[in-house]
């Protein structure tokens, strides 16, 4: 390294120092504090009676059936909704990619659900599925109230999630589609590959980075699901996610210890999912691709 | 010279120091009140000025949101909170946390002679160091659920004008009405048939309202969740009698939820869906707070869109002008006329009991006002509380905002009686004999959440087994064990 380059590097570090310190304060402090709280018996109503209890809050959480059922519900919602979003998002992206007439209109229309505030959308789903006031509930046979039973309610939650975030998936996949060179597809066509073969053999392999980034983003997002459940069922009838469980223990029971332990566990799960995607499937964060080196 | 310089510095700095403390003038008392009731309190607060001014700050509309915001401010030692409203279930928690100051002795003595027994109990707690239970807040208004029913259907199909007194009778009457309507329908061409009003509207969603329902039925069966004399003892199953009462109450809940033709949405219903079910003509019976009365009256008169109309009540349309939006407040005479027509089809009765031998009890709601221990203006704050809960104030809350007063004497007020035809019934249910206070404990919120999770969905359990599960959940809540679902 030349002296000039070393000087540049020092200057670069100097320039990013304030931002790095600020980031550490803003993000590291709350995370560290939450971790510290999770090792204590602490309640909002007894600020002077905090007591160090080690990992006992984690044992409480992991030894409680409510945590495991919430985790199962969260995983089920995550897997089902992300798979549906991927398939639908891919279909929509292909349509958007190939649209010739009214391209702007089509894209705007597809993106509309993503523009609606989640809570507002969830409210309208709530009323739509409530017997009496709802146009969707009224289509069902008399006497059914889907939001009061676990499986139908979970189905509605997944539907609300898919409806809301498929456009986001489609948008990411559309960007991936733009990576596929037209010449390649045409050459394959000349070689006699049908539409299906071209999709499986050329488009999807070339889109792999975009697909994995889209999957990573949506999986992390879906795992943290809160708002749709909060509005649609408030976590009743066994539909609560781990985030709902954390919220209830922090802000209803005012139990800062176990509530923080749940938050830390959610954080670890999210980190695990991210690690799985990045190490296991080779998904790369934007800007970290090989060509940059 | 040096002294002059020091003085100059002090003069320059003094206003800054004062400004640092707070931007609120020293004579202003800040009251944090629920968003949806703020207008009524603001109207009263405007007239309160005895060496102070009240500035009203709006909290969220839902009780959980209010509790959370207050807890955050008070736990953080926020001195800007002088006066705050407390839901009736928070008294023990806020007093034990050291957030709510005990009511001064002279005011407490006055409350004991003027306020109804039930509401006063909701504001009373005994924290460590107290020789006996004492009020930690002043009841502002109160609330109690009644039985609402379709008097026309009862007269036609059960041949009786009076409401059932117990849940068993209610279920029998409801089945009778449903059978009657079905038989009547069979004689009609399809187009003229009416929906069978077979629903019993209750609060069955997994939330506080479900615990209220359970608590009322349990108290009417002679049981209780916690020992009122020792709130650290769970009394759901500790003796054979208590256990029998708990099981009896659970049987009632289950019977309502599984009655033939029961509301399919029962386990998702809160107060408002219950009110709407009654207004749409789907229900013969409902248990709900008194606000459903004025709602029924104005929606039946003026309802325009599908969700507001009261289809079974065309006679009320002639009062459309009286209850239209923006119309002047109706006179006592006009109200009385509207109420008489309303009574032809829609009526109220005491909350149903479990056994005729035991008094029926109904859970109390309402709002109390407390003074923060963090406040620097305690003296002014208590004066503000006195004004905001005075007889004149409670009368105004009743007439303008339909909130039932906690002061016994107001139930004899002529204007109030014309606005609340159920005044005598309310007073009766708010007294010690018929009021069912919720368990008083600093962990009420946890307790209620855990009970609601066990009780929900109503009827999908075995009463015998659930009684034990509820007792275990209550024990865990008191011990601070496990998670809150």
> What characteristic shape of chain B results from the CA principal axes?
globular
**Structural class label of chain A:** mainly alpha
Please provide the ordered H/E string of secondary-structure elements of chain A. HEEHHHHHHHHHH
Oligomer: heterodimer
| Main sheet attributes: strand count, strand direction, barrel closure of chain B | 6 strands, mixed
Put simply, the count of helices of chain A is 11
The first-to-last residue Cα distance of chain A is 16 Å
The best one-word shape of chain A is: flat
Question: Would you spell out the secondary-structure blueprint of this structure?
Answer:
The complex is a heterodimer of chains A (about 290) and B (about 475).
Chain A: H1 3-38, E1 40-41, E2 51-52, H2 56-62, H3 65-98, H4 103-115, H5 118-128, H6 150-177, H7 182-190, H8 195-223, H9 227-232, H10 242-251, H11 256-280
Antiparallel strand pairs in A: 1-2
Helix pairs in contact in A: 1-11, 2-11, 3-6, 3-8, 4-6, 6-8, 7-8, 8-11, 10-11
Chain B: H1 2-21, E1 28-34, H2 38-45, E2 53-59, H3 63-75, E3 83-87, H4 91-96, H5 105-114, H6 117-122, E4 124-125, E5 134-135, E6 138-144, E7 146-150, H7 151-158, H8 167-186, E8 199-201, H9 208-220, E9 226-227, E10 230-234, H10 240-257, H11 271-279, E11 283-288, H12 291-302, H13 320-323, H14 332-342, E12 346-349, E13 362-371, H15 378-388, H16 391-401, H17 414-419, H18 423-430, E14 435-436, H19 444-455, H20 463-479
Helix pairs in contact in B: 7-8, 9-10, 9-19, 10-20, 19-20
Structure overview:
The complex is a heterodimer of chains A (293) and B (485). By secondary structure, chain A is mainly alpha-helical. Chain A folds into two domains: 53 residues, no CATH class; 218 residues, MetI-like (MetI-like fold, Orthogonal Bundle). Chain A is built from eleven helices and two strands, in the order αββαααααααααα. A two-stranded antiparallel sheet of chain A has the order 1-2. In chain A, helix 3 packs parallel to helix 6 and helix 4 packs antiparallel against helix 6. The longest helix of chain A is centred in the first third of the chain and has 36 residues. Chain A is flat and about 75 Å long. Chain A starts with a helix and ends in a 13-residue tail after the last helix. With 485 residues, chain B is an alpha/beta fold. Chain B is built from 20 helices and 14 strands. In chain B, the strands form four sheets. In chain B, strands 1, 2, 3, 6, 13 and 14 form a six-stranded mixed sheet that branches. A four-stranded mixed sheet of chain B has the order 8-11-7-12, sandwiched between helices. In chain B, helix 9 packs across helix 10, helix 9 packs across helix 19 and helix 19 packs antiparallel against helix 20. The longest helix of chain B is centred in the first third of the chain and has 20 residues. Chain B is globular, with a radius of gyration of 25 Å. The N and C termini of chain B lie far apart (71 Å). About 2% of the residues of chain B have low confidence. Chains A and B meet through helix 10 of A and helix 3, helix 11 and helix 19 of B. Chain A: Belongs to the binding-protein-dependent transport system permease family. Chain A: Its main location: membrane.
């Amino acid at each position: 390294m030349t002296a000039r380059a070393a000087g540049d590097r020092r200057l670069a570090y100097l320039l990013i120092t304030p931002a790095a310190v600020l980031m550490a304060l803003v993000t590291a402090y709350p995370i560290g504090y939450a971790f510290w709280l999770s090792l204590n018996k602490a309640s909002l109503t007894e600020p002077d009676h905090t007591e160090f209890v080690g990992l006992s809050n984690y044992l409480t959480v992991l030894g409680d059936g409510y945590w495991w059922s919430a985790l199962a519900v969260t995983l089920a919602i995550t897997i089902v909704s992300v798979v549906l979003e991927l398939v639908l998002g891919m279909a929509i992206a292909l349509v958007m990619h190939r649209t010739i007439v009214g391209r702007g209109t089509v894209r705007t229309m597809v993106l509309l659900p993503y523009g609606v505030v989640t809570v507002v959308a969830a409210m309208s789903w709530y009323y739509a599925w409530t017997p009496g006031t709802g146009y969707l509930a009224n289509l069902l046979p008399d006497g059914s109230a889907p939001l009061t039973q676990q499986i139908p309610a979970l189905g509605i939650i997944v539907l609300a999630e898919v409806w809301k975030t498929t456009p986001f998936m489609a948008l990411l996949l559309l960007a991936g589609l733009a990576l596929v060179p037209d010449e390649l597809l045409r050459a394959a066509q000349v070689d006699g590959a049908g539409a299906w073969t071209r999709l499986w053999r050329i488009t999807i392999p070339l889109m792999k980075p975009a697909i994995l980034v889209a999957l990573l983003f949506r999986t992390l997002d879906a795992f943290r699901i809160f708002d749709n459940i909060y509005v649609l069922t408030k976590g009743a009838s066994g539909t609560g996610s781990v985030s709902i469980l954390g919220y209830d223990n922090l802000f209803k029971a005012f139990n800062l210890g176990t509530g923080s332990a749940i938050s830390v566990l959610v954080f670890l799960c999210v980190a695990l999912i991210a690690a799985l995607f990045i190490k296991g499937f080779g998904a790369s964060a934007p800007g970290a691709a090989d060509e940059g080196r | 010279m040096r002294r002059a310089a020091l003085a100059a510095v002090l003069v320059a700095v003094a206003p800054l120091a004062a400004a640092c403390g707070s931007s609120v003038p020293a004579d202003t008392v800040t009251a944090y009140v629920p968003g949806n009731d703020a207008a009524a309190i603001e109207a009263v607060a405007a007239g309160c000025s005895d060496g102070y001014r009240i500035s009203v700050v709006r909290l969220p509309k839902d009780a959980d949101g209010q509790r959370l915001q207050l807890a955050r401010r008070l736990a953080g030692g926020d001195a800007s909170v002088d006066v705050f409203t407390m839901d009736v279930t928070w008294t023990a928690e806020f007093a034990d946390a050291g957030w709510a100051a005990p009511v001064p002795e002279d005011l407490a003595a006055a409350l004991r002679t003027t306020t109804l027994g039930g509401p006063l109990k909701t504001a009373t707690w005994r924290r460590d160091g107290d020789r006996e239970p004492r009020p930690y807040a002043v009841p502002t208004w109160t609330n109690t659920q009644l039985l609402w029913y379709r008097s026309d259907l009862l007269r036609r199909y059960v041949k009786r004008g009076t409401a059932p007194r117990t849940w068993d009778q209610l279920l029998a009457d409801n089945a009778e009405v449903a059978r009657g309507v079905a038989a009547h329908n069979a004689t009609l061409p399809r187009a003229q048939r009416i929906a069978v009003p077979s629903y019993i509207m209750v609060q069955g969603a997994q939330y506080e309202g479900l615990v209220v329902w359970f608590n009322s039925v349990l108290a009417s069966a002679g049981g209780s969740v916690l020992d009122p004399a020792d709130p650290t003892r769970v009394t759901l199953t500790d003796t054979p009698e208590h256990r029998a009462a708990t099981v009896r109450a659970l049987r009632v809940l289950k019977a309502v939820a599984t009655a033939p033709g029961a509301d399919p949405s029962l386990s998702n219903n809160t107060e408002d869906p219950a009110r709407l079910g009654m207004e749409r003509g789907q229900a013969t019976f409902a248990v709900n707070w008194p606000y459903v009365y004025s709602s029924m009256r104005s929606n039946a008169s003026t309802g325009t869109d599908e969700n507001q109309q009261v289809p079974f009540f065309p006679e009320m349309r002639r009062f459309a002008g009286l209850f239209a939006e923006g119309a002047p407040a109706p006179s006592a005479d006009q109200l009385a006329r509207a109420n008489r027509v309303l009574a032809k089809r829609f009526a109220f009765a005491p909350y149903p009991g479990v056994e005729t031998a035991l008094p029926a009890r109904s859970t109390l709601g309402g709002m109390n006002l407390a003074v923060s221990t963090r406040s620097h203006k305690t003296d002014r704050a208590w004066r503000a509380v006195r004004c905001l809960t005075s007889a004149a104030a409670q009368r105004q809350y009743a007439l303008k905002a339909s909130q039932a007063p906690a002061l016994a004497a107001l139930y004899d007020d002529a204007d109030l009686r014309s606005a609340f035809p159920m005044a005598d019934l309310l007073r009766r249910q708010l007294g010690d004999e018929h009021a069912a206070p919720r368990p008083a404990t600093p962990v009420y919120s946890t307790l209620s959440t855990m009970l609601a999770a066990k009780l929900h969905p109503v009827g999908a359990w075995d009463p015998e087994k659930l009684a034990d599960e509820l007792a275990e959940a209550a024990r865990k809540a008191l011990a601070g064990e496990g998670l809150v679902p």
